[in-house]
Design a protein that fits this description.
The complex is a heterodimer of chains A (264) and B (266).
Chain A (H helix, E strand, L loop, with lengths): L1 H7 L2 H46 L9 H30 L4 H6 L5 H30 L7 H23 L5 H18 L14 H6 L1 H14 L4 H30 L2
Chain B lengths: L16 H15 L1 H25 L2 E4 L2 E3 L1 H30 L4 H5 L6 H29 L11 H22 L5 H15 L11 H9 L1 H14 L4 H30 L1
Classes of the chains: A mainly alpha (264), B mainly alpha (266).
Amino acid sequence: MHTLARARSAPAFRELGYWLFRYRRTWRGSIVISVANPLLFLTALGLGLGKLVNRNGSEYLHGHPYVEFILPGMLIAAVMQTAFLEAAGPVMDAVRPRGNYRAAAATPLAPADILYGHLMYWALRAVQNSIMFTGVSILFGAVSVYRAPLLVPIALLVAVAFATPAAAWSVTVTRRSQLNAMFRFVVLPLYMFSGTFFPIEQLPAWLRPVAWVTPLWHGVDLCRTVALGTATLPRTLIHTGYLAAMAIIGLLVARRNYRRKLHV
Amino acid sequence: MTATSANVPITLRPGRAWTMVERNLMIYRHTWPVILAEIFEPLLYLLAFGVGIGALVGHVPGLGGASVTYPEFVAPALLATAAMNGAMNETTFNMYGKLTADKTYESILTTPMSVRSVALGEVCWALLRGALVSTAFLAVVSVLGLVHSPAALLIVPSALLIGFTFASIGLVVVTLLRGHEDFQLIQLVMLPMFLFATTFFPLNVYPRPVQVFVEILPLYHSIELTRATFLGTGGLHLVIAVVYLAALGTVALAVGVHRLERTLRT
């Protein structure tokens, strides 16, 4: 029965199966990085630093306690970070040193199947992480029980929007130091200045438009307006449209790059 | 040689340690961009937290009677954290690679170098890098206008002491690692310490029992030290921090040298 199901499954699911199989060995470490890490930030900043912030009563927070403000930011920033890390190192390794991709490409799997399979794995990871993260956040009282389930599909959208361009790029990368540089000089600054920890209204006027075009801000703002119940239809449409476009373009470029790299 | 290795007395004379530093310097000529990232990261945190969150926080009351701005409060703590991370990375990540994958030390030990010289050399090397990073950080922070007194220069020797303590702790830790997965455990200790050891908010936000726990952490004393020198609010805190860090570092160094001796000679 089991083998029959496997034999009939689409090729992309074979690739997904491979990554899930590997995940059985590495899930402990991944939980530390993707769940414990943002939760610690949430505790330290939301509760500890929150005491200082709430005492000051900033007008920018619109009457919300700081922990409610940064929770959506932390969630989305963590999802982005995990999506990038998963779609950078493992993809590069799979092309060159380890060669899992090249091995898979020697089977009836097409490069696109390999991409789709890996993408499904990233999507599953994002859903898993965001469920755990929002679950604990409910216990913190940082988000209402009714709105929390809405945050999971948003996290999924953000994960795909960041994973596909990251994969499109990292499949072409040859040196690990390039990945590190990208993480330190692009991903980390995005993390810090996209409204994650403080409202972008606080940035100097000339810098605000920069924040508006960064993809992470769209994810953070989408998630925050939904979590705080201040979402408006036009704003939500702009955010989702931006992220969806990024995901689709990323996917198309990734498909092309995978084909060029793996069909030799 | 190996027969007597178990009875090697624990002394901390440097021997040929400088040769180890020299070797690292030669390698470093090709990997220097790493140091840029090490300076860049605390600055990023300073901008995001000091300036961004600073606007939400306002002034931080109750530090030596005077009220300091939030960037001034965060900057020395970030320097202490950078000194800690730089030193720990050097003696854990980098040394682990040399111990396992590269087998660098095994080759080195076929020369007149001793394990003690290797260990002390690596700690000195971590300190050298720490000096570079903390000086650069101090320079940028003074350009940003956060430094008000020349006494802030003392933050460089403070960073060196912090580097010494954590490089030595890293030396012990690297001999305890069973595999790559254990780096996660290091993260699991370092990250909470970074977040809770008064980096971003003063001790008085905690209830008393938590305060006691935080006061035990080495990073707490490191931050006390840098903050006191940076803000010019010295006093008893300074003495406690210096004694605590020096004692912890020396004990860790002795234990680390001893353990490395066992790891490499068997």
